[in-house]
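Sample intake sheet
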Amino acid sequence: MTLRTLLTGLAVMGFVGCAGAQTETSETVSYTMADVEAAPDAWRAVDPENLVIMETTKGQIVIELLPVVAPVHVEQFKAYVRAGLYDQTPFHRVIQGFMAQGGDVEATHGADKMLEPTPAEFTFERNPNELAIDTIGPADSAGSGYLNGIPIETEPGFLAEMNATGLLASWIPHCPGVLSTARTDDINSGNAQFFLISDKARHLDEKYTAKGRAIVGQDVILSIKLGPRPDGYPIANPDIVMSAKMAADIPEADRPRAFVQRTDTPAYQAILEEADAGRKHVCALPPVPAVVE
């Protein structure tokens, strides 16, 4: 796969318009493990099997994967991580105010290391009675919310009663920090290359397979060396993924522990109610806090 792994026709898709100033991060409350220990019921421990520790030349990015939304893509991403194939791969395409793209395994390690492309998983179907999300507004009419602290967009709940299957189409919107899958014009060409959103990119929703989010390291994503406008490449001396590991593969004594604030608590429900009153989309809210130690 070549460097051109996002759709061609950037101007048509609005990518050029996204290449403006980098988003300024608002001040957020900083939490520590002491906060987790003081209120354990307000935090969820992240499964180390879904936790990726990515060390880059600009710092550490910690990613939580969400297999339920894109199981095939998540398994393939884990396979590349476990094979060490993201190590030493550059962020070869970085567009200001949009995203940082990396993971060109073929260019760094050779075509023989590539797995087969994965079929598109732009949306997933969920039974709202079995897999509920914490919605902004009433569940029967809400269009977005959180699942495990990861932003989710969804069909409103009332449609489940109207569908023969009782299922709702849902997906991860391309909010800041979201991990998504690069591809060519072929919707079923997603493979090793990925991109991390530095700003909102909702024009990609339901067109690219998002599969998780950076719970720590959004400042690192924003600091990755930019490419030339408008296309974001080639980049001389790009930043690099020095290593990527699954937390589950790190010896337990050395393994980082990660916790994400629960969004089903009364305190967080108050935040969601305020967002509903202001008619805010989930991408307009600060990311759900996390602690990694």
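Comment: Residues 71-82 form the longest helix (12 residues). The first strand starts at residue 43 and ends at 45.
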